[in-house]
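Q: I'm teaching a short session on how sequence maps to structure, and I want students to see two examples side by side rather than one. Could you give me a first protein with its sequence written out and its structure tokens following it? Keep the formatting plain so it prints cleanly on a handout.
A: Of course. Example one:
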Amino acid sequence: MQCGTPAPEGFEENQIIEVPAGDLISMSTSQLPQLRDLGLLDHLIGVDTALYVNTPEVRELIDAGTLIEIGSGTSVNVELALDAEPSLVMTYGYGAPE
């Protein structure tokens, strides 16, 4: 929802994302080209791991030391992610729900 507008009814607080969202961490390389295309790379402050990133503009940010790596799977560094104070962490779902 647009920042400053009333929240829609029927949703929990943690289900609502105000836009613009501010700084973000992406935990999937498949999200990076869309962030680039939307002109939002200046809001990207971190990734899960730089190992598989092949979006050239994001590689430049990694090589410049601009982005943090918070880890993935069961080895996410939650403290590092919280210290970065992102407005949004974009993750993904896979596997069995449990």
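Q: Perfect. Now a second example for contrast.
A: Example two:
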Amino acid sequence: MGATRLRLLIVLAAIAAVLGYAVVTIVAGQSGRVLQVPWLAAATLWVLALALLMWALLSRPRLQRKPGVKPMPPLMAARSAALAMAASRAGSLVAGFYAGVAIATLPHRDTPAGMTTTWASAASALGALALVAAALWLEYLCRLPLDDDRATAA
């Protein structure tokens, strides 16, 4: 399992942004209404980002084997890394989708529904980006030292 590449996350976000833009365009064209994005979506994404950040902060001393702290078992570290990888990919998809929705609703921002959707989708996209950042940091903390690092340390 290799480290997450930024290129992959950007491609996933771009694909999701096109999909989000298309969904808003299709809904507006078929029903004449703006797609509604609840503020709860943004709140949920920010809570998830905060929870993952807290997990990373609490895991950091255990992963770095600081003195006086019980080291994290390898299986738990592997599960944390898998969680981080999944969160970064899901976060980039969600960020892209909501960014596409925000861009597509910009022309409708003169209406109350359009303004609410634009701001809620922008806040959701930023929350998803915060989730990606926390996930990438947790993944960085969980990485194994290279073989060269072990040889020079010995």
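Q: What should students look for in example two?
A: Point them to this: The first helix runs from residue 6 to 31. Also worth mentioning: The two ends are 26 Å apart (CA to CA).
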